[in-house]
Amino acid sequence: MIIKIRLFAGIAELLNTTVLDFSIDQLPISVDQLKVLLSSTYPEASSQISVSFFAVNEEYATGEMMITVNDEVALIPPVSGGDGHKSLVERSSDGMYVITDESLSIEEVYSKVLNNNHGATLSFVGTTREMTGDKRTVHLEYEAYIPMALTYLEKIGTELNIRWPGTICAISHRIGKVDIQEVSVIIAISSAHRDICYEASRYAIENLKQSVPIWKKEIWDDGHKWKGVDQQETWDPLSR
């Protein structure tokens, strides 16, 4: 029996495919069992597979979860931003959360959270830096599992409103090539008071980096590297 597994970032690059047709004896199969089979079949990728999580139907899956015939399966390496090639703009149903390969506008995202009864509005803007230690970055490339990423961006907004009722959040993230000083992510927050704005903004970016399936490749003068896999061996998006 063949199941299709979507691959991203460094694993997709290593196995030279974004959709893997993987043969198993029968379904259902548990996530943990599939992970063991995948690692033994592709030992060259086993170290990356070991720190990755499966997503089933666009939700992070526990090891005990059973995968059935009609499930959509994806292998999610530790997240932190990969590459897009065709122009796109994908939005949540309310337009507050966007993934695009077009340049981002701070004013556009900021305008989504303005409210007559809010006394504080804050924008966090993430840009590409040139030097990280002694490494010179030429540019970054971002890749996303777009439908799941939008779902998890919306979840961040929902969680913010539970923690700080009335808070408004909008997030836009760029994919594809992002040059030095260009903007990769904008998080806009508004609330009645400034202390909540600061807390909510930090909460949003930290949780985005922890759980949203967006990957980052750093392109250097002398090579490249996908961020995440070998730096977050204890990565666990289900622990949030």
Write the layout of secondary structure elements.
Elements: E1 2-6, H1 9-15, E2 19-23, E3 29-30, H2 31-41, H3 46-50, E4 53-56, E5 59-60, E6 66-67, E7 73-76, E8 89-91, E9 97-100, H4 106-111, E10 120-127, E11 131-132, E12 135-144, H5 146-163, E13 168-174, E14 176-179, E15 183-191, H6 194-211, E16 214-220, E17 223-226
Parallel strand pairs: 1-7, 9-13
Antiparallel strand pairs: 1-2, 3-6, 4-5, 4-7, 8-9, 10-15, 11-12, 12-14, 12-16, 13-15, 16-17
GO molecular function, one term: molybdopterin synthase activity
EC number: 2.8.1.12
Enzyme class: transferase
3D structure, described in words:
It is an enzyme of class 2 (transferase). Its EC number is 2.8.1.12. This is Molybdopterin synthase catalytic subunit. With 240 residues, this protein is of the alpha+beta class. The chain folds into two domains: 2-76, Ubiquitin-like (UB roll) (Roll), CATH 3.10.20.30; 89-227, Aldehyde Oxidoreductase, domain 3, CATH 3.90.1170.40. Helix content is 27%, strand content 34%. Helix 5 (146-163) runs antiparallel to helix 6 (194-211). The radius of gyration is 19 Å and the shape is globular.
Strand line-up across the major sheet: 2-1-7-4-5
Spans of at least 5 consecutive residues whose pLDDT stays below 50 are 81-86
Shape label: globular
Distance between the termini: 34 Å
Known CATH architecture of the largest domain = Alpha-Beta Complex
- Mean of all residue-level pLDDT scores: 92
- State which percent range the strand residues make up: 25-35%
Number of domains: 2
SSE order: EHEEHHEEEEEEHEEEHEEEHEE
Spell out the CATH superfamily of the largest domain: Molybdopterin biosynthesis MoaE subunit
Largest sheet: 5 strands, mixed
Spatial extent as radius of gyration: 19 Å
Structural class: alpha+beta
- Tally of strands: 17
As a percent range, the share of helical residues equals: 25-40%
CATH class of the largest domain: Alpha Beta
**Assembly annotation:** single chain
Which fold name fills CATH's third level, the topology of the largest domain? Aldehyde Oxidoreductase, domain 3
If helices are DSSP runs of H or I spanning 4 or more residues, what is the number of helices?
6
